[in-house]
Fold each of these.
Amino acid sequence: MRAVIIERPGEMRVDDVPAPEARPGEVVVKVGACGICGTDIHILDGEFPPTAYPIIPGHEFGGEIVATGEGVTQFNAGDRVAVNPSLQCGYCYFCQRGQGNLCENWNAIGVGREPGGFAECVAVPQTSVYAIPDAMSFAEAALVEPISCVVRGFHRLSPQIGETYLIYGAGPMGLLNAQLARYNGASLVALIDINPSRLERARTEFGFDVVGASLDELRPHAPRGFDNVIEATGVTKVAERAIDAVIRRGKLLLFGVCPPGETAAYDAFKIYNEEITVLGSMAVHNSFGPAVDILAAGAVAGEKMVTHTFGIDDFEEAVALVRKGGGLKVQVNPSA
Ligand SMILES: [Zn+2]
Ligand SMILES: [Zn+2]
């Protein structure tokens, strides 16, 4: 079968590899769509510490089960599924306390030590697959993982109905956060991005009218600040300045993945005096099933999120498009 292989940082190719077989407890998924995300670019560039090379990348995917291993009772060939890439050991300190996304032996399909979805087929544990409704396309199924990260962020924020939101970044993750904020009963959802075409898309295609290139532009909409400020750019300087947008007793969620080791400086007095909460949100935790359900319920304009689909042999071209910031969600259909 065809698969993308990253031999080592900076060295990527599309090649023929043996198709996987379902070991006990596993199912083989024929990938219908797999999204490219910023983490894939980091893996390509050698900037994601947990990755063990060589690896077949791809962690945002859905498809059809084509084989089941011994002991698989819940799923059958022909079932349409989305795959939760996060893997937890189950026995470490944090897993035993029900905090599996903080696992001390953290691993993930297509990200850590297991082959991922930029391949025609991938074998995954039955515990990682979620049935999707017939009406959900594979392109949408491949959005469940990023949505599940956003759901995790909302679990951390635990916002109240009627609150205001400011989201830094109008890329795929920013727009997913914005749509979930709206779905969650926001009274105002504002977006900041330095890329005017992204703001234009947020406005015209997703109906977010309060957008701007800077906080100063948006201040008049929320003079005292925003209840929930979500940093979805992964730029440390942005994470630092984002606190200026938080209302008294408001919350700042660091959702974007900033480079490890960089420092954001905060006015400690401000956090004390204004009772500000700063939160982190790491990947997926008890949020994959809810993500399937809210996508099925129409919380997210799934089809609008996917702007480009490539065949697997054009993976390099797809990556170049993502690096340029072109389009919104860029996906690969390995079965095309
Ligand atoms: Zn991702
Ligand atoms: Zn663990």
Amino acid sequence: MELNDKIRPDLKDFPPYSAHTSPDTLKEQFGLSVEEIIKLDANENPYGCPPRVVQALSKFKSYGVYPDASQLELRRRISDYIGVDPERIVIGAGSDQLIDLIIRLMIKPGDGIINLPPTFGMYSFYARLAGAKIIEIKRDANFQVNNAEIEASIEPETRLIFVANPNNPTGNLISKQGIKELLQTGLAVVVDEAYYEFSGQTVMDWIGQYDNLIVLRSFSKWAGLAGLRVGYGVFPATLADYMMRIKDPYSVNAAAQVAVIEALESKAYLLNQVRDIINERQRLFDQLKRIEGIEPYPSDANFILCDCSRHNAPLIVNELKNRGILVRWFDAPKLRQCIRISIGRPEQNDILVESIKEILGEVKPW
Ligand SMILES: Cc1ncc(COP(=O)(O)O)c(C=O)c1O
């Protein structure tokens, strides 16, 4: 029996998400652990997760029992952290899962979502999986969003717009006024604040004022929990209720729930690291700017996108990889001549900068 014939025809040429290098690949390719590699390709916290998390997980005894399906304690803790009613909070296995669920809840095949490339790849990934019509409104040369063009593109079946703020991989913010205008279109507007702790800009205070605003956040970036997969969304009350109905009950596992509670108990410790990373972002930006042919874009997140169009970006990425340093390259319009570098620890950033200088000394410009 040929099962290939039974696959949805519209998924036959579905492009896989090209993820950063996984820990297993690192082990195989380099014979090194994640700790030994200078891993600046996935915007993780370079200091890892807080010690309280490690201690609590080593003492945790209830791995044999299903976790709380409604994540009550976790929602209460997150509510204390962000100052929003727990009933509005929905927790997912990474904010990725919430992107998927929002699309499943609102989009039937043929309905439209507005995507603002270059941006985070999972919006179009899940939209395509849901059979959505993806309306792409490209950002300008400085990666700013064109609200007039967005408004003009809206059709009766358009439901949703995703805006990452700050945007990944470009690092820039859209103004609060810009978001207000998007909300005034009446579409559901998902403001993805995965990097909020690094930017300090939020529209969380508008929750309750707009019934078409959804805010997403993550514990992967600032809190060092990327491997445990926890993100949350803040929704209009009725939408939160629908989200909880369609969400699979146990996607936020027991270890993840323990870890988030301990990470929030370590808030001061983590926010200190965030401050260090923000300082390091400026120092790394200044150093990159001094390298001929490397043009870093200003960033409000924990990474810096660099234009390397006077050189060969994939070649730089490969040469860095050969030295055990991982950075990110995207095979996408406007990004092929760029590399994205996550902010590492100071000593890692120093090695990165010296390595780029060395590589550019060795490699002829294109
Ligand atoms: C803008 C943005 N949103 C969401 C995510 C996904 O985060 P999580 O690990 O919580 O699924 C990422 C991760 O890179 C991101 O850059």
Amino acid sequence: MPRPLPFGAALVTGASSGIGEEMAHVLGRAGVPMVVVARRAERLERLAATYPDVEVLPADLLTADGVAAVVARIRDGARRPIDLVVNNAGFGTSGPMHRADPDRLADEIRLNVLALTLIGHAAVNAMLPRRRGWLLNVSSVASFQANPGLAVYSATKAYVTSLSEALHEEVRGTGVVVTALCPGLTRTEFQSISNTSGFESVFPSFAWTSVGLVARAGLRGAARGRTLVVPGALYKVLVAVSGALPRSLTRRLSRTISRR
Ligand SMILES: NC(=O)c1ccc[n+]([C@@H]2O[C@H](COP(=O)([O-])OP(=O)(O)OC[C@H]3O[C@@H](n4cnc5c(N)ncnc54)[C@H](OP(=O)(O)O)[C@@H]3O)[C@@H](O)[C@H]2O)c1
């Protein structure tokens, strides 16, 4: 019998698909009330129709208004306090950086870095006075090394992992926990959006982590107060090995793999 989740109420960004949607299902099944955030409101409404206590907050986190709406909900003292914030919305861009559309790269940084930071800032400020809370930032195994072919994406995720580790220490002992979830390859809409659908034929089936495992590992890791969560044995080993190798070697290995 798994331990019940300790969260009183959650807010999940990017809850309309993939890892965020799966987290919303895990939370919904566990009876945790939640606020679900994404641009596709009709998908969020489906979650609201499935579980008893779901608030739909459609927002485009590429806009200042969208981020402000989420921050306002987190700060809203008149409503049920949110003690779990999952900063999950994000996307990637594959291919050589110099050939990518600069506006798309700016959006990637705006969503993966800026929106995540502002939402995390609001979350920690709301949680500290209550001496209770969890901030779960969705990063990636790509955050642990440079990845030619996913250069900007990996750099945004390196920021997320570094930020989360630093915040974890800043709030240590306060009752607030900050965790970075670092999944490896997981089949979601990410592949079509980041133009990495070719990975399906390049990487064998054992390299793919299920979205259910990723969502459960992230929520369980946050509940246990972990700093970093890498779902799946394969990726735990890869992260440990790549940390022990010279960076000059890991980036070249990554370049070789991305060219296959
Ligand atoms: N899949 C993988 O292999 C993998 C591996 C490591 C890390 N990750 C990370 O996991 C997180 C979730 O990705 P996923 O794989 O679940 O991909 P996904 O299926 O494409 O889901 C992305 C979510 O982000 C939301 N989103 C995108 N742009 C947004 C915006 N401007 N405003 C608000 N919400 C927005 C999307 O909702 P709307 O389109 O409805 O707005 C969607 O719900 C990302 O941070 C990603 O970098 C994924």
Amino acid sequence: MTLSLNCKDAGDPVCTHTMYGETEEELLQNAKKHGIEVHGYTEESWNGEIARNSDHFRKLIKTS
Ligand SMILES: [Zn+2]
């Protein structure tokens, strides 16, 4: 089972990057790496964002 999350679905207007993971934990790790590398998040601002929107993010995760 692979979980995926599209950056665009997560609210970015232009980025079409898709993050994958075997588990939700792994997916969120990959999303964090992408957020920091591409979208200028810091470890701290990312954690804050996830903490505020965790329900929202979980709903966007697709399973295949
Ligand atoms: Zn992105």
